[in-house]
Design goal:
single chain, alpha/beta, Purple Acid Phosphatase, chain A, domain 2, Recoverin, domain 1, six-stranded mixed β-sheet, five-stranded mixed β-sheet, 26 helices, 51% helix, globular
Length: 700
């Protein structure tokens, strides 16, 4: 009996170890493919940014068009945005049976919204725009770094990425309770993208934010970014939900995103940011940055050096009129900051209030002239502008320095080694080590750091000697059963208490024995999904793989060793995966340890080919570039109509032809766009866009 027990124990441990190894390998596959996709997005955006920086528009119309295309949210001034997104002119039909909102919002409104969304109902566009309008007004008055105290509530609950998964938010509220005066929440960014209910999550969070402005706090994540939304589904999903008013809602959401606070401090001891830090992170600078300037963090605007010099001179009070070398008098620079008139007596409060408003307005106008903002653009007084005005004698930062501060806190990841290096895996932000964490915590007298941004199998993970906590709240992120979600609760002692969950309705009704079998089935399902995605990735790089295999096949035998296969695959895909361990799932066993790589690639092609008449080489190109082509399509489609107009195509092709030094007449571009418009409706849809690439590939 003792020997039998030991034998069963040994078998069970081996079985569990293999399951865990399979789970870890599956995890590595999903994560590597996800980060490679983010890297492609940043590379694509950098390419367009390069075109923008080196393109000289031939007319003001061309300049305005290109500017609106790539910096969508910034093209609207304050008054224009209000007029464009006018919700008051919209009528709600009598047939509408969904929830209704009236402002100021009450807790009953939030409860009604939750019930409506559980019943798969939608909120009418008028109420959505009204909610966004009120949210924007509230966010504009908030500081860049929110401050939360456990003195006023029993505990603070911190949630990580939700990514459009409304079931996870429902489960959090079910387990932990709704926001209330005694229950504070911090939602740490990445509310949208990937999931199908991103808009509903925004509506719920913004509603609670307005009802409990002191108890609900929202941080900006790297997915609260217009350019990221173009690739990961939020823009397309929103337009599909509301084709009539979707563009207005999207425009307003872009503007709301740029007003989201950047960080939260709990009791001045726990810093909550979405991504991480770097060796240059400066909380004082983050506190004073005008965060709304960065509609998309992926593109950092460059200010001309001449303007920068003038700015430095003006702020330092060194305004001068200098002569150039030719002896001509140079144009005078901007006038120095206005000196406020003598303050009236505090006894007359009305007079004193008028004096304060006049003085602040003069300072704002001077700052606008300093950074080339049109005086005709009216702007409300915000917390950020007041902070910047009161610190005119302090250090002056360039736009690039401010942009890097925001990029680092939204995109960075921790690493086990000391130091700070460029985050080459994601393509943005940096990797920061334990020494960087220690220095920041010591500098600002903090206990530990809470961040999100990375999916964790258990929903949370400590690193850097428990000084950095990653919290991720979207369960089943890659596939059903791939990971748990979690949130963390902090009381006055600031000791973290975790709650884990998995939003899976099937598992809740199973017995313990059934759950064991269900777990094994889940792992198999997740593993199958991961390897399917990996085979698609391999197939998409067939041509490059053949070249890499031939480099090892010196004698042109068509065969290579399995060890060389693993090295060749990594040299092409750069995913950092344990290919030798994954080999049995990807390559059929061979007796002599040699692989016939051409037949292996043919097998991959047979798996992916959906239609017999499509060539493998063509399908490979489409698989490899579909995400990029879809993102390019959405960038060109600047009004998010799902169609590219002839004018949009014309202006974009002028941009490409300028970069490639190809002389094209307007008639040539018109002929090209007409040839792509197969159904002759005057627009290009995504299928026609893809078909054009297919025809070009076939002709080659």
């Amino acid at each position: 009996a003792f020997k039998a027990a030991v034998l069963i124990q040994r078998w069970y441990r081996r079985y569990v170890a293999r399951l865990e190894m399979r789970r870890r390998c599956t995890w590595r596959i999903f994560q590597s493919i996800e980060y490679a996709c983010e890297q492609d997005q940043i590379k694509l955006h950098n390419f367009f940014s390069y075109l923008m920086d080196h393109f000289t528009p031939s007319s003001s119309k061309e300049r305005d068009f290109i500017s609106r295309m790539f910096i969508s949210g910034e093209s609207f001034k304050e008054a224009e945005l209000e007029k464009y997104c006018d919700y008051e002119s919209m009528e709600v039909p009598d047939s509408y049976t969904g929830p209704r909102l009236s402002f100021p919002l009450l807790p009953d409104h939030a409860t009604a919204l939750l019930e409506a969304f559980k019943q798969k109902q939608q909120l009418h566009a008028r109420y959505v725009l009204n909610l966004l309008h009120e949210t924007r007004k509230h966010l504009k008055q908030l500081p860049n770094i929110s401050h939360v105290s456990t003195c006023y509530s029993e505990e603070v609950t911190v949630c990580g990425d939700l990514h459009g998964q409304l079931d996870d938010l429902f489960l959090i509220f079910y387990k932990n309770g709704l926001p209330s005066p005694s229950k504070s929440y911090v939602f740490n960014g990445d509310f949208v993208d990937r999931g199908k209910q991103s808009l509903e999550i925004l509506i719920v969070l913004f509603t609670f934010l307005l009802i409990y402005p002191k108890e609900v706090h929202l941080n900006r994540g790297n997915h609260e970014d217009h350019m990221v939304n173009l690739r990961y589904g939020f823009c397309a999903g929103l337009i599909a939900i509301s084709r009539v008013h979707g563009k207005k809602i999207l425009k307003m959401i872009q503007n709301v995103f740029c007003w989201l606070p950047l960080a939260t401090l709990i009791d001045q001891k726990v810093l909550i940011i979405h991504g991480g830090i770097s060796d240059t992170t400066d909380l004082d600078m983050l506190e004073k940055i005008q965060r709304n300037k960065f509609i998309s963090v992926l593109r950092g605007k460059k200010r001309k050096e001449s303007n920068r010099n003038v700015e430095i001179q003006e702020i330092n009070g060194e305004s001068k009129v200098e002569a150039d070398p030719a002896g001509n008098e140079a144009a005078p620079s901007l006038s120095p900051p206005p000196r406020p008139a003598q303050a009236p007596s505090m006894a007359n409060r009305l007079e004193f209030s008028r004096w304060v408003r006049q003085t602040v307005q003069e300072q704002i106008e001077w700052c606008r002239r300093l950074v080339d903002i049109s005086e005709s653009e009216e702007e409300e007084l915000t917390y950020s502008s007041v902070v910047s005005l009161t610190d005119l004698d302090g250090p002056c930062w360039t736009r690039q320095e401010e942009w890097k501060q925001i990029l680092d806190i939204l995109w960075s990841d921790p690493m086990p080694q000391d130091g700070c290096s460029v985050n080459t895996v994601r393509g943005g932000g940096c990797y920061f080590g334990p020494d960087v964490t220690g220095k920041i915590l010591e500098k600002y007298n903090l206990q530990f750091l809470i961040r999100s941004h990375e999916c964790k199998q258990e929903g949370y993970e400590f690193c850097h000697n428990r000084k950095v906590l990653t919290i991720f709240s979207a369960s089943n992120y890659y596939e059903i059963g791939s990971n748990r979600g979690a949130y963390v609760k902090l009381g006055p002692d600031l000791v973290p208490h975790f709650v884990q969950y998995q939003a899976n309705k099937t598992a809740h009704t199973l017995t313990m024995t059934q759950r064991q079998g269900f777990l094994v089935a889940l792992i198999s399902r997740v593993e199958e999904s991961a390897f399917r995605a990996l085979r698609e990735k391999l197939f998409a790089h067939t041509s490059a793989l053949i070249s890499a295999f031939k480099a090892y096949d010196k004698d042109n035998t068509g065969r290579i060793t399995l060890s060389n296969w693993a090295m060749a695959v990594e040299s092409v895909l750069h995913l950092g995966l344990p290919w030798r361990m994954l080999r049995p799932q990807l390559v059929r066993s061979t007796a002599d340890g040699m692989l016939e790589y051409k037949s292996w690639l043919d097998d991959l092609a047979m798996e992916q080919r959906s239609q017999e008449h499509i060539q493998s080489s063509l399908l490979e190109v489409i698989y490899r570039n579909r995400s990029n082509l879809e993102t390019i399509f959405r960038i060109i489609d600047r009004d998010h109509s799902g169609l590219i107009s002839f004018e949009e195509f014309h202006q974009t092709w002028k941009l490409f032809s300028s970069h490639m030094n190809i002389e094209l007449t307007d008639d040539s571009i018109n002929d090209l766009v007409r040839s792509i418009d197969f159904n002759k409706d005057g627009n290009i849809d995504f299928n026609e866009f893809l078909e054009a690439f297919r025809l070009v590939k076939q002709s080659q």
